[in-house]
């Protein structure tokens, strides 16, 4: 086994100082992390809630966790591995894998936060369209299959198609921390 295959990296990737977005790291914007993501090395070591990033993120402060809104049953967070700038995830707090396992109230709040996310992103960055979706199961593309999350992906004319982007690296024009500030400000300010 070569040296770069010996250590799984999930804990490293979840630490703020190791994520893309630190101001001096423009030259490593996204791509190395995305490559690790694609290779599967940042997958949680188990499907347990203790190892689940979406269960652990809410215990971070908003900026550290890139959280833009905390609802009653669900929260909105910037995706650490965005397909496009402003890519948000709407996550129920409960560690639930399948959409059919959500309560009626959770379905309603995930839906309302998805609507709100679209409104906020339109105000912040005027995307031309969106992809909304939940990948159910690893075979369907879910990176963290054990905890469902609704993707809200802003799209612009001329950007890459959704499916090809999933499998490719993509440089983004904004750092994650800056994106968080813009989206959080818009979400809080235009409520
Ligand atoms: Zn979870």
Q: Give the SSE order as H and E letters.
A: HHHHEEEHEEHH
Number of strands: 5
The neighbouring-strand order within the major sheet is 1-2-3-5-4
Oligomerization status of the protein chains: single chain
Kindly report how far apart the N and C termini lie.
52 Å
Q: What's this, in brief?
A:
Helix content is about 35%, strand content about 15%.
List keywords for this structure.
single chain, 191 residues
Describe the 3D structure.
The protein has 191 residues and is an alpha+beta fold. The protein has seven helices and five strands, in the order H-H-H-H-E-E-E-H-E-E-H-H. A five-stranded antiparallel sheet has the order 1-2-3-5-4. It is globular and about 35 Å long. The N and C termini lie far apart (52 Å). Bound molecules: zinc ion (ZN). Zinc ion is lined by residues 49, 52, 54-55, 95, 147.
């Amino acid at each position: 086994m070569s040296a770069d295959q010996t250590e799984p990296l999930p804990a490293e990737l979840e630490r703020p100082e190791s994520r893309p977005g630190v101001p001096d790291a423009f030259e490593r914007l996204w791509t190395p992390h995305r490559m690790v993501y694609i290779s599967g090395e940042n997958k949680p070591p188990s499907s347990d809630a203790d190892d689940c990033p979406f269960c652990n993120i809410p215990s971070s402060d908003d900026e550290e966790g890139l959280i833009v809104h905390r609802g009653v049953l669900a929260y909105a967070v910037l995706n650490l591995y965005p397909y496009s700038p402003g890519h948000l995830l709407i996550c129920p707090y409960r560690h639930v894998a399948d959409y059919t396992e959500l309560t009626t109230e959770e379905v309603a709040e995930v839906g309302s936060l998805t609507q709100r996310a679209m409104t906020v992103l339109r105000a912040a960055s005027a995307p031309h369209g969106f992809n909304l979706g939940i990948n159910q199961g690893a075979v369907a593309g879910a990176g963290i299959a054990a905890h469902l999350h609704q993707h809200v992906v802003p799209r612009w004319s001329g950007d890459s198609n959704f499916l090809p982007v999933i499998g490719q690296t993509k440089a983004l024009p904004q750092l994650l921390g800056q994106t968080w500030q813009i989206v959080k400000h818009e979400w809080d300010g235009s409520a």
